[in-house]
Amino acid sequence: MTGPRAQTPADAADHPLRAALARGDRAHARSAPALRHLLAAPDQSLIEEAVVAQVRGMLANLASQLVEARLRSRPVDAATQDAMLARLLLEDDLRAHCQALALEWRLARKLESGLAIDPVLSPLLQAWVAEADAATGSLAMAALAAQARFAQAQRRMQLPLAELPAELFHAVLAAAREVIPDTDADAVAQADARLRGDYEEGASRLALLARLVREAGAQTPRALSVEDAGVALWLSALAARSGESRDRTACAAADPHLGRLLLTLRAAGAMPAEAERQALRIQPDADLPRGLADVGTREAAQWLVDVQP
């Protein structure tokens, strides 16, 4: 599908949405080293940004889980905890993932307050739970339970190891092997085996939401409506249909330039007017970039790939 007018190369380069996309991506790229610096600051009283505090809380919780799992019956000292946290702060992809989760939770709380959208049970998820098809209902119930656990964990600034994507789970285990002294090789090996044995990526919240979107929500337009889907399902549906990563989609929803969010919505199949309506649901006071009606779904998807920070 294309827009009403094909874009020439010159048109595309000058398009307001493309400029907004580039500005937002540059700001996102600049945020990564700034986030790392803020997270490493020893005096957290100087940092008031809620997202930074949420990310640090999740990383500290991951560090505690790793230390306790590997040391087991041995005493856990503050120095080891601090060293583990400092090592996790060096993991760029892990920080970015925690940032996306914190932004997702911030948006969920904002829409709960402003639009009365429940952060756990959305109308679409409720409909799927009551679905006559047993498989859909069972999958929706599992996703609902996982979302309830996510909400509880975010309120406590926690992130269970089992909820990490596989590549990040293995990365943090490797980090723990670097930090925690290997004084008892057998005990450490057993600890790693236990962690791996307890880990099942397909049972994680993100995997369940992705599967639900794929199997139950592949065609329904309700999945692209944040009022119907709720923030968690909405982000998963947007990512799945647009080809963007879910973490990047969560960050796009927090980008004040809104270029990437609008193009992600368009690439996912939302009509221009509906994409703009959704963007204003997320950021009601935003000044939307013009020209979305000129951009087709394929063009939007290509711009998301082409325009880099």
Structural write-up:
With 309 residues, the protein is mostly helical. The protein has one domain (9-306). Helices cover 69% and strands 0% of the residues. The chain has 15 helices and no strands. Helix 2 crosses helix 13 and helix 13 (259-267) packs across helix 14 (272-282). The protein is globular and about 65 Å long. It starts with 8 loop residues before the first helix and ends with a helix. 40% of the residues are buried.
Rg, please? 21 Å
Structural class, from helix and strand content?
Answer: mainly alpha
Q: Roughly how many Å apart are the termini?
A: 27 Å
- What sort of overall outline do the alpha carbons produce when their principal axes are compared? globular
Mean pLDDT: 87
The main sheet comes to:
none
Order of helices and strands: HHHHHHHHHHHHHHH
Query: Which range does the strand content fall in?
Result: under 5%
User: How many individual β-strands?
Assistant: 0
Helix percent reads 55-70%
- Give the count of structural domains: 1
Note poorly predicted spans: 1-6, 43-48
Task: Count helical runs.
Answer: 15
Short recap of the structure:
This protein is an all-alpha fold and 309 residues long. Helix content is 69%, strand content 0%.
